[in-house]
Structure formats: C-alpha cells, structure tokens
Amino acid sequence: MGSDSSNDEDQQTHFYEESRKEHDDGNELGQNGKKDRNMKKKEKQKQKLLRQTAKAKNRGVCYLSRIPPHLKPLKLRHLLSQYGEVLRIYLAPEDHAVKLRRKLAGKNTGKNFTEGWVEFANKKDAKRIAKMLNGEPMGGKKRSAYYYDLWNIKYLKKFKWDNLTEEIAYKNAVREQKQAADISAAKRERDFYLSKVDQSKAISAMEERKLKRQRVDDPSSVPDDDSTLATGSSKFVRHFTQKKSVADRGDDGPRLSQNILVAVLGRK
Asked: Which of 14, 107, 150, 187 sits 20 to 30 Å CA-CA off 205?
C-alpha cells in the first residue's frame, strides 16, 4: 500500500512538472510571436513612411498670385485637374474689412480670395502646367465670370506644403498678436477715459461743496444761481455801484447859464 501511494505521488508530481513546462513553453512562444508581430508591424509602418516621404519629395507646389472673383477651390481643382493630378489646394480669403466695404457699396457680396497654392502629385507636372498656363486665358464656359481672366501661376522651386503650413501658422500668430495689442490699447484708452470721468466728477463734487460752504458763511457774496451748481464752477460775479461823472472844472473862469445860451442861439 505504501509503495502504491508513493508511485501515485511521483506520477502526479511528474505530470505537474510536465504541464508547467508546457505552459511556460507556450507563454514563451506567445511572447515571441507577439514580439515578431510588433516587429513586422513597425517594419510595415517604416516602409509606408518611407514611401510617403518619397512621394512627398516628388510633389510640386504652384502659387497663384491672383484669384478671380467667384472662383472657388472646387472649380479651381476642376480646371487644373485636366492637366495633372491635384492633391491639395489652399486659397487665402480676403480681409473682412474689404468684404464689408464691397458689401456696403452694393457690389459682389460673395466670398472672394486673394491668392492661392496648389499641390500637384508630380513636380514635373507642376512645372509644365505653370509654364503652359501662365498668362493664358482661364477659359471654361463663356458665361462664367472668369472666362476672360488670365492665369497668374508660378512654380515654387524647393517649396513644399509643410512650408506653407508653417507660413500660415506664422501669419495667424502675427495676426493674433496684433489683435491682442489692439485690444490692450483699447482697454488702456477706456480705462484712461473712465479715470478722467471719475476725476471730473470728484472735482465737481468738491466745487459744489465749496459753494455750499461759501453760501453758509456769506450768503450775499455768492449768487443763488442754479447754473453755477450745474457747471460746478466756484466763480461768481461781483457787482459794484457806479459813481456819476464829474464835470471838468479845469477852467476856473465864470460860466454862462444854460438859459442865456438858449436865448442867444434862439435869436440867431
């Protein structure tokens, strides 16, 4: 009986060790498989990034110095796509103040653009298109608003779309700083005006109290005038009695009476 129980224990121990070994081997294989999958995934991402970088180096950007009125990005893509593959388009909108003035003048109220950039999939196509279209009529339907407008397009050498995004971000930052400076200047002007208003009110109150004290001390010296209180001025007008003029007595000789003079003049 003792030998049978010991054999059973040995078998159980051996089975446990075998199962544990198999479990460890399975975990190791699973970890190795996960590492292999991660490495393959990273390698694919690296290859994809290299392909995208190579494609980006082969792209070309053209600059449009003027965008005709009513020309939208979708229509511009349609016009240029017939000459080459267009990837991205950015058109700079006009200033809001210019649009507002045009709207008040009763002219075109739509959204217009001032300049634009077009990215082509191939830089050779971009060079060819810029050389072929620059200075030529845009064409399209004769009834279109830009049928007789000319292309103003130029190929930008060694210029990539990332440079454009950096330039746009820089312009936005400059505009935000300018707006912040304008707002700060307006706030300073407002605070200065409010401080002057408060100062004026304080001075007016002081002058009014001064007038009241003067009325209490000497009522005859201060006129009871509402306008004086309204203006806040402490000045008042003094009235002096005028004396009658005295005849010139520089000549001490005798003077004729008024009746004699009338009689003499009347006779003449």
From this structure: 187
